[in-house]
Description:
The complex is a heterodimer.
Chain A: H1 3-14, E1 19-20, H2 23-26, E2 43-45, H3 50-63, E3 67-70, E4 87-90, E5 97-101, E6 106-109, H4 115-122, E7 127-128, H5 141-147, H6 154-157, E8 164-170, E9 176-179, H7 192-196, E10 205-212, E11 214-215, E12 219-227, H8 230-242, E13 249-254, H9 255-265, E14 274-282, H10 284-300, E15 303-308, H11 312-323, H12 325-328, E16 335-338, H13 348-362, E17 365-371, E18 376-383, H14 390-407, H15 426-429, H16 432-445, H17 474-477
Parallel strand pairs in A: 2-4, 3-4
Antiparallel strand pairs in A: 1-2, 5-6, 6-10, 7-11, 8-9, 8-10, 12-14, 12-15, 13-14, 13-17, 16-18, 17-18
Chain B: H1 4-15, E1 20-22, E2 36-38, H2 43-56, E3 60-63, E4 80-83, E5 90-94, E6 99-103, H3 108-116, E7 120-121, H4 133-139, H5 146-149, H6 152-155, E8 156-162, E9 168-172, H7 184-188, E10 197-204, E11 206-207, E12 211-218, H8 222-233, E13 241-246, E14 251-259, H9 264-275, E15 281-283, H10 286-291, E16 304-309, H11 315-328, E17 335-339, E18 344-349, H12 354-368, E19 374-379, H13 382-387, H14 398-408
Parallel strand pairs in B: 2-4, 3-4
Antiparallel strand pairs in B: 1-2, 5-6, 6-10, 7-11, 8-9, 8-10, 12-14, 12-15, 13-14, 13-17, 16-18, 16-19, 17-18
Helix pairs in contact in B: 1-2, 8-11, 11-12
Amino acid sequence: MERSRLIREMEGIVGAEGVVHEHEQLRTYECDGLMNYRVIPDLVVLPETGAHVQKVVKLCYGEGIPFVARGSGTGLSGGALPVESGVLIVLSRMRKILEVDIPNQRIVVEPGVVNMWVSQEVADKGYYYAPDPASQIVSSIGGNLAENSGGVHCLKYGFTTNHVMGAEVVLPDGSVTHIGGGKAPDAPGYDLLGAFVGSEGTLGIATRITLRLSRVPEAVHTLLAGFEDAEGAGGAVSGIIGEGIIPAAIEMMDRLTMEAVEEAVHPGLPDAGAVLVIELDGPEAEVEEQFGRVLEICEDNEATEIRVAEDDAERALFWKARKAAFGAMGRISNDYYVQDGVIPRTELPAVLARISELAGEYGLRVANVFHAGDGNLHPLVLYDNDTEGEAERAEKLAGEIVFTCLEHGGSLTGEHGIGEDKKKYMPKMFTDDDMNVMQLLRCAFDPHQIANPGKIFPTPRLCGERPGPFHMHPLQKAGIVEQF
Amino acid sequence: MQTEKELTEDLQRIVGTDNVSEATEKDAVEGVEPDFVVEPGSVEEISAVMKLAAREGLAVAPRGGGTKMHIGDPPRRLDLIVSTARMIEVLEHTPGDQIVRVEAGVKLEDLQENVSDSDQMLAIDPPESGATIGGIVAANSSGPRRYRYGTVRDLIIGITVVLHDGTVAKAGGKVVKNVAGYDLSKLFTGSLGTLGVIATANFRLHPRPGAARTVAVEVAEPQQAQAAAQAIVHSQVEATAVELHYGETEKQLTVLLESIPGGIDAKTEMASFLLKEFGEVRTLSDEESDRLGPLTPPEVADEVVLKIGAPPVDLAAVLESALGAAERKGLGHPRIMGHAGTGVTFVGFLGENEDGAAGFVEEMREIWVRRGGSVTLQRAPLTLKQRVSTWDNGGDYLGLVRRVKEKFDPRGGMNPGRFLGGN
């Protein structure tokens, strides 16, 4: 279809104000939170309702035009990177909270609703939405669902996938289906919702999402402890877990990160080699006793300074310090590259030692921020884009770090997703058969591969379908996919 | 097509002479008798057996402890049972990482025993004893603790599967937090052997609680049962399980509380305080709380058990609808138990009155599927299943279920016909 006609048809669905087609305006959407990759989409469409999404997708399907869904665009793996000659479907106008059902502990929202709004909506009822990615003041529930976002409190409470209970989904052929029980448990059949959450926009677009609401705990105790080095902090983490305590969160920052954070938000962090932020929540008597034990364990591991949050304001300051870490890096480095590798917790000392060795070899600084409780590392490789060759070196070092995670039994990504950025590493973690079998799922949902094509898997495969609406798949024509 | 003798020899070459046997009546699945039972001892052997099955067009049913083979509609055909009886190794348990990797044939009891040395547990507690990990994952079995810890999908972190064509694939890994690739562990959870054989599975473990107590309240009416369950659910007590037993004489809601020794008294007090407005509250002895576990296996072979999934706030309506329909259909007072905190209710009765039972199932479906819930036959005589399927076909996702089945098992060789939609 000619571009001008496509624009007219899209405008017919979502209105003229819902279609972006001028080159300069399209540039706003050329990347998500990961700015290393940029592609200007052919067209941006901003639907306002599930019915709009369905019509837009149906039009794309009929014309064989690939589409990419985007929420707030905060993703860190290029998952919402547009495809050239494709449509970017931006869901940020779908921001209604549709239903609050406290008795069943559920809330139904549109995909563009911002994570934080959910908790705000139900706070006065004593409820909240547990998954809390650091981006939560901006990132959308639809994006969280696509990426299976984590957060600092997922050690105890789980990830997005454990809190999404149902979804209305527009499949890549434009049909609508409802997966997951929503308010009722154990919907019969395959766990399609479990497979859909975290599929990075490659299986369809969720247009109506049912989330589980959690009761605000009776007591919350938070401390910040400084240690001589990361080893001491790691020892405390192991001690706490070994004791059978599951804190709501245990976060670690190293000296370099603390320097940046101190400059950015002035939280008054201790002068230490590493700092832990530990939070326990639950029934008062239980939390109080366990918190006492956590203090002892920190002391046993030679904490140099321990500060217990006296009130909500101080607790908020501790968390502000932690959540500001990525943003604060700009204070100490022009550019940085974030990794998201995961390791078994017990491998922490060995992996940290290796990272510091690698940093030395590459002559680059690496700041470490991580979810210490679940072994999810966010090493930030610092570099200067204006120094020739440094960006390439940084990317290579970041790759080496993630391979180190794999060598120690871990994963490429804990919460940011594979997206565009890490698909080249997938064969290091999975065999061809593993990836081919995963793509069978893709073939069931999206046989013509028009939903976010080219993401996650290094070698996309077609599904052996008889030619449907198209004679030859555009990706096949472009030589970037092969027939399954 | 090979002769039976050639096939036996081929199978024996793969798994060893002693590990192939001719099937007997005991191996029949819902009235369909297979030819062979094969016991592969490794992932590679499973793969080789499956390749042979695919080549010969054999229909395969995976089997673990055989405790749940009755779940599902009768298979359309069945040639080969692939048993995981020799896949019994605990591959890795790293206490500091709170994870375990096991072969599918490991029995849950053995896994628990294995990890209990480090004061850990897998927080899955289905009622049937002798069940294997593979079977628990395939059937998505759960028990009372699901209220706090979730179900298999919330605890499984990695899987190895073998498809009908022998392809071996893994997904996930051995770290709890992991979003690399599609989550096939969840897809295979509850897939009832229709997508492939589960060969190994990895799980997140939890610390064993240092103290536990069960508080019970007598509930005279459905409304009280619901209100009592809601009182716990909306409190800050962090209960582990909220269970309902609603028989003809015994009607009580039990709340399992777990904590550290220093925290259990306060939790017990809080729960008792919350429950006392609904009826007489007491703390159960250990023996009594054991007895009040999840649905005990029925003593009568032909008992019918329905599983109703509905929003937790509809508990009273579920009870009233079941009691009313049972009475009208001449089924007497059914045995009702359930995970009241999560909206799962089991209704059990004798299967003698088949017309009544069929009418009961249809009426429950009429009400609860329309209201967004589900009604599944957990156990039923074959003749009843032939009248009313195991599954309600309530959802608009059935087409997607079929497409997933077609992609993973294009020849229809895995447990054909047992799953919803005839898949």
